[in-house]
User: Which sequence fits this backbone?
């Protein structure tokens, strides 16, 4: 049964690796439904926080277009050859657009896309992690079902809740912190859901995390390539 | 009391396990008055005082009175460590927050622009002086009144401080924990992170580093003090001797510096290559 009122406590305890929330998720009558609801809810809240933070940042800074125009104008005074100057101008313009998209600076209503994008990203990450992690854990003699694995690994979203602080403009949360903390929570989830010894639980957490890291890295490289190519 | 003499923290060590959930959940039977209870989020003042006096055994495991009250429950939890780091970070950042707000409001812009304008001062790309552009952007004004924009941005920079400290705690701590295990330590994530969190306490003094002359000296003292507490905490939670504790604290630093140098060198070579062709 869905119990959103308990989510803050469960996420808080998962963040410090206490076993209770993992046991509760594993023993839930519908772990994957509970997990899906929790992940979507946290994603929506983060998206909302990011949108509000973006609006406040936009209101605190000069207009985004004017700043870009000024930077481009200043760049032209650098005295590089016209070819290099034009190429770099394209990179600056595209980089600025992506910067606005991710931080919400000057993106206005488009920032609301985060309300869809962040929950979607978190759900995809959770499903991918849960399924790969389940296969690895089973291969290592794990005892949990896929349903239980998905329930426990939904708590991996706990560190992402730190992104709620981005409702305040200019707050920065380290991506490395979120990744490593999520990895540690995932390790705990695998340990509980599959009753694995700690060394095997480490592998069951690290392998899916590496797969996700490669995929996200690939996406990052794709975005970087698009910026460089001026798309 | 030496490390070897201290009471056994039953259930907090990794060991061959038959019922892993019971074995790794030392807090399940401990009193839990809820996440909103203040005492759940910080160690007692007595424990913090003991940590600052380098008496880490008593700080982490509690004194005789604490142990009688808590039984097998840990006196220092990861939750308490996290709360203590957050509070210490906020305390260290409070004076800089006020200064940032004041300075940014006087410039009529947001706090990061002020520091960018200062940092960019000597930077020149071709004929482009970055400081001129940053200065012009800073003077362009915003929709919000300058004092409010400055305050919001200073608040953001302030809130980021404990988040950065938490990042160091988790990331660097993981590196130390891995080395500890390689060197033969037996400890849990919760006990380790709870124990080493006391190293954040002296770092509150970093708030005083902007004071001319004496500030940097105070900062150095804070860093050395934090390092010593970290090593002592590693000794206590991982049951390592001084030599291995120092090694496990320093080795991640050396490895990270080495990786940083390699990455920096790679970026420099790539940049040279791009500009050369």
Assistant:
């Amino acid at each position: 049964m869905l119990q959103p009122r308990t989510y803050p406590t469960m996420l808080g305890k998962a963040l410090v690796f206490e076993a209770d929330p993992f046991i509760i998720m594993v023993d839930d009558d519908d772990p994957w439904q509970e997990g899906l609801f929790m992940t979507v809810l946290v994603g929506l809240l983060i998206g909302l926080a990011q949108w509000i933070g973006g609006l406040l940042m936009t209101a605190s800074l000069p207009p985004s277009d004017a700043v870009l125009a000024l930077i481009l104008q200043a760049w032209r005074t650098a005295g590089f050859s016209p070819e290099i100057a034009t190429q770099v101008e394209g990179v600056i313009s595209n980089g600025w657009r992506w910067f606005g998209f991710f931080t919400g600076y000057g993106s206005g209503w488009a920032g609301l896309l985060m309300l869809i994008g962040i929950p979607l990203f978190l759900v995809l990450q959770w499903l991918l992690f849960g399924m790969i992690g389940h296969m690895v854990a089973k291969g290592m003699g794990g005892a949990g079902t896929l349903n239980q694995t998905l329930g426990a690994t939904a708590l991996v979203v706990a560190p992402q809740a730190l992104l709620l602080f981005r409702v305040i403009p200019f707050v920065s949360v380290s991506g490395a912190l979120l990744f490593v903390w999520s990895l540690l929570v995932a390790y705990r989830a695998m340990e509980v859901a599959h009753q694995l010894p700690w060394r095997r639980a480490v592998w069951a957490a690290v392998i899916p995390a590496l797969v996700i890291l490669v995929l996200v890295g690939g996406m990052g490289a794709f975005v970087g390539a698009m910026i460089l190519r001026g798309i | 009391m030496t490390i070897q003499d201290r009471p056994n923290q039953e259930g907090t060590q990794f060991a061959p396990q038959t019922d892993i959930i019971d074995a790794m959940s030392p807090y399940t039977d401990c009193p839990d008055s809820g996440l909103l209870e203040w005492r759940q989020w910080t160690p007692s003042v007595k424990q913090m005082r003991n940590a600052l006096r380098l008496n880490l055994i008593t700080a982490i495991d509690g004194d005789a009175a604490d142990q009688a009250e808590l039984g097998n429950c840990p006196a220092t939890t990861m939750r308490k460590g996290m709360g203590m780091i957050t509070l210490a970070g906020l305390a260290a950042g409070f004076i800089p927050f006020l200064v940032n707000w004041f300075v940014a409001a006087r410039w009529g812009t947001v706090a990061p622009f002020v520091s960018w304008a200062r940092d960019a001062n000597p930077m020149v790309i071709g004929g482009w002086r970055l400081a001129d552009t940053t200065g012009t952007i800073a003077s362009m004004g915003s929709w919000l009144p300058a004092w409010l924009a400055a305050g919001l941005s200073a608040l953001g920079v302030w809130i980021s401080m404990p988040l950065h400290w938490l990042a160091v705690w988790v990331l660097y701590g993981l590196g130390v924990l891995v080395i500890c295990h390689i060197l033969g330590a037996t400890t849990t994530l919760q006990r380790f992170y709870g124990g080493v969190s006391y190293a954040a306490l002296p770092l509150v003094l970093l708030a005083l580093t902007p004071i001319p002359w004496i500030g940097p000296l105070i900062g150095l003292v804070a860093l050395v003090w934090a390092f010593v507490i970290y090593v002592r905490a590693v000794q206590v939670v991982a049951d390592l001797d001084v030599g291995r504790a120092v090694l496990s604290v320093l080795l991640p630093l050396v490895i990270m510096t080495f990786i940083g140098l390699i990455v920096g060198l790679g970026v420099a070579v790539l940049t040279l290559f791009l500009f050369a062709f």
Remarks:
- Residues 198-229 of chain A form the longest helix (32 residues).
- The CA atoms of residues 95 and 227 of chain A lie 6 Å apart.
- DSSP finds nine helices and no strands in chain A.
- Chain A touches chain B through 49 residues (CB under 8 Å).
